[in-house]
Amino acid sequence: VQPFTKPIPSTAFKITLVAVRSDTDRLLHVNNAQYLRYCLDHAAQGATTSAYATFKGDLGSYKLKKVAALFQGQAREGDSLDVFSWEDEMKNNTLKFQIKRGEQRIFQCTIEFYADGREQKLQSML
Questions:
Q1: What are the beta bridge partners of residue 81?
Q2: CB 107 within 8 A of CB 101
Q3: What is the pLDDT of residues 104-125, one digit of tens each?
Q4: Taking a C-beta distance cutoff of 8 angstroms, is the pair 71, 35 a contact?
Q5: Which ranges in the chain belong to alpha helices (H)?
Q6: 91 vs 66: CA distance, rounded Å
Q7: Which DSSP letter does residue 32 get?
């Protein structure tokens, strides 16, 4: 996974959160899995508040197709984190996310959903 080359769009949906103790590992860094949770929670809020053109209502009704993540830094309990998301202009049904602590980029991911909102069924060839 390569870092995003374009800046965060000015129209990106943004929330700010504070990392809490339960988000951290035994070294008191935010656990890597929490960053993905932050993104999914953020996207769910964006979908219910009409922040996106494609995704509306309950994000849980959209089936995940692919997730690509890049860990770029660390956060600790009490850190204020800005979570940004926007729709990928080059790839339909895809959201991009960037998490920053101040000006430092600490996590990015791209989440692609199935186009028809339903997980594709595999047909047995037996």
A1: 17
A2: no
A3: 999 999 999 998 764 455 555 5
A4: yes
A5: 32-48
A6: 12
A7: H
Query: How many C-beta atoms surround the C-beta of residue 100 within 10 A?
Result: 21
**How does strand 104-113 pair with strand 64-71?**
antiparallel
Distance CA 88, CA 122 (A): 27
Instruction: Find where tokens 């993104």 sit.
Output: 39
Neighbours of 121 (CB within 10 A): 5
Query: Which of 3, 12, 14, 10 minimizes the C-alpha distance to 81?
Result: 14
Q: How far apart are CA 121 and CA 17, in angstroms?
A: 37
27-83: pLDDT as tens digits: 999 999 999 999 999 999 999 999 999 999 999 889 999 999 999 999 999 999 999
